[in-house]
Specification:
Number of helices: 13
Low-confidence stretches: none
Radius of gyration: 23 Å
Strand order of the largest sheet: 1-7-6-3-2
Order of helices and strands: HHEEEHEEHEEHHHEEHEHHHEHHEEEEE
Distance between the termini: 32 Å
Largest sheet: 5 strands, mixed
Structural class: alpha+beta
Shape: globular
Length: 472
Amino acid sequence: MARQVMIEHGFEPDFSAAVQQQLQTIQSHNPVAAIAKNDLRGLLWSSIDNDTSCDLDQIEFAEQTPNGVKVMVAIADVDAFVPKGSPIDDHAAKETTSVYTGVRTFPMLPEQLSNDSSSLLENQDRPAMVIEFVVAADGTLSGDTVYPALVHNKAQLTYNAVGAWLDGKAVPPPKVAANAELQQQLKLQNEVAQALKKQRVEHGALNLDSNEIQPVIVDDQIVDVEKKERNPATDLIEDFMIAANGVVARLLLNVSSLRRIVRTPKRWDRIVQLAATRGVTLPADPDSKALNDFLLKRKAADPDHFADLSLAVIKLIGAGEYVLERPGDPEMGHFGLAVQDYTHSTAPNRRFPDVVTQRLLKGVTAGWRNPYSDSELQAIASNCTLKENAANKVEREMAKRMAAIALSRRIGETFHGIVTGVTEHGTFVRILKPHVEGLLIQGQEGADVGDRFRVKLVRTDVQRGYIDFVRA
């Protein structure tokens, strides 16, 4: 079903014979041997990612200096394995992103690369591009630089285990418990990440939640779905990646490059109205700081319904997109992150814009000619935006199907629900456990967004991803 949905949305999930042939030549090619200088394998690098991830794009290291904490983020050097214009590169340029459907991952690159040769796996020597910056106590950055290096991941860790430990809710995971230096390293990284986040929030970065769910699979069967939760480890990596992407964007200011932007909302007036219904007056002109203050208050006042408010705000702000930025062009910025210079560079195993940006970085740091023309970058930006939107649709459709499977055994049960939408297509209600949404097909008269009542599950349709409730 996931493969069919991929094809319906314009993806080509199978790799060509030319790609398979190129893979054979890659396996006999070892770019590690080509890196003579910047041998950083001795540092205590570690990675934090999902429990099942093998396509590791980045590892981190931090150390205290007189001017602040020096943060080093090593990014997998995919370009070292995949030359521009090669069959694998052409496939990645068309697909532009790995798609995570919950039940299967459709990788942008062959898994022999993304999950092995170019992945920063534990106990493997790997080529990388290191993004380095110094973070002061107030979260400001200095000393930005990028360079190639040889790295070695000493500890492959997971969000759930590290997050629970940093949050004081669990003992450290075994690898962390066995290494006092690693414990200090992760605590230092967490402190720096909090300073980075505080500085961004002060400038208006938005605090938004999502309703993203993941399946609970037992013996290859979906038995439940659960909401993905944030924790200090996910925040740590997010804050480091945002900072690293900003560093890269600033280093590319003097060449044509790709930018990741979220435009100033055209529908700010509707966001103002949304806040007014909750007793808050926002400025007439778009103001991310004022909006975030409102969001933080609502999260504290009504945490159960905050994800739905977030979703409404996200839709009104509009989706992110990739654009070409030439030297001297007006900066469009990223409204949600409250930054002007931003690109995507930290996930080249999973996103094609990051591969392109990696090549641009190599050109700038080595003094080469820009490997892409403006027209090429414009076409890449447009296709990446198109395919990212398509990937989001695939993932949403599969989430609905997974929820329908998980609930198919619970027909007739009643749940606490919140009305999340009243449209011409019907009245939609979200239940909290499990965190899924469905259509209210009976008892919807007079119901409005935010109303809470019990609902009974009466039907699921896995093929269409339908879940139907009636008022209990």
